[in-house]
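Page 47, continued from p. 46.
Same chain as before, 477 aa.
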Amino acid sequence: MRIQASIALSRYPSLSPDAVNALWEKEISSFRHQIIVLDDDPTGVQTVHGVSVYTDWSEASIEQGFLEPGSLFFILTNSRAFSEEETRQVHQDIAERAAAVSRKLNQPFLLISRGDSTLRGHYPLETEVLYETLQGEGNPIDGEILLPFFFEGGRLTLEGVHYVHQEDELIPAGETEFAKDRTFGYRSSSLAEYVEEKTDGRFSAKDVTLIPLSMIRSLAIDEITSLLMNVSRFNKVVVDAAEEQDVRVFTIALIRALRQGKTFLYRTAAAFTKVIGNISSRPLLTAPELVNPEASTGGLIMIGSHVQKTTDQLEKLKELSTLHFLELDAHLVLEPEDFQEEIDRVQREAEEKVQAGVTTVIYTRRERLDLGQNMKEKELQLSVDISRAVTSIVQRFAVTPRYLIAKGGITSSDIGTNGLGVRRATVAGQVAPGIPVWTTGEESKFPHLPYIIFPGNVGAVTTLRDVAAMLEGTNQP
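Result:
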């Protein structure tokens, strides 16, 4: 049932920032775990800055992450674009290697499966594989934390129900377009029922532990810790949250439980990674921080996501008359030779425009390719083929753009790892709420390029236009 946000949230007392911060500083000062975030697409860094993202999961890269001065690093798996079998293998490999490095360095660690804040992705497969592998490696796990709260995207959880906040309305996640995803769809908005649905009843909704917002807002740390201490047999914990401080209060109790020997895996959105990693907030990045004023080329904007929000944002972006727009007919993917000709045509024209200083927008045809019922694996594969085509344009691009924006999770991951050849990037910060920026490494095709990763389902209808206008140095459509 849809509810009015202002009324729903007014029922809860406010937290005292000073009280929360005093408790936080006391707990975090003795927290020594290395935090590894497995990101199923590149948007998981949308709340952090000054951390590394690795695009491979070799034991050498994992050890390098352990040895970094900070307590947190990301591994971009991009598993949302994988088949179930690929996903299983990747997560088994990472868990085995992380456990091996942990033993070698005598360093405890946490594994966070960072997934979509609207609940799409390979769940419960990813965390179940991590659980099974770690158990086999001698790392017992008591339970799993589900915390999909993500303020910047308008995702919050109240009384165990996950909502998408639009204007002053809270829409249960199961009633949104995201729940109708052809590959990762679901029915339940109650996270306990979502667990039961996704695990085919292997974990019952009645066995899920809820950490309610009323308890969090009352600073009932001892009670929350007690609930966590009673979790066993990989049962699930659902955490309410409506603002970042709620996550901080829960994490205080979590650290206390960890100190007493409890162990968990985590399926969360981006807010929890920022809090548990103790990453400070910083102002949004500005054009002078991102764009070289002496660069004479145009920028490049690649749009692949097909969620309605992206299509609406593209229409607003077209209000910027100084940009050049090129549509890639992705439906030609069914005819490989014709599709390659289309890719070559778009690339040639884009290179000419960018070289001439004109920022160019390449976007895939907006109508989704629909093969009918029971074809979700085939459609997923075709979507990967389309993303590879978009990626190949960047991979072969002969002109260094002033900046690069990629719109959509699969699109931005493929462009980052395969198009730009990034092996390790640094998160510079965010250019708008929930929209992260990588600074590419020396090994990449375009070193030190500001690479803006724009999630398909984040931002207002005008956000893409406003970001491009800021980078272009104009505030006028």
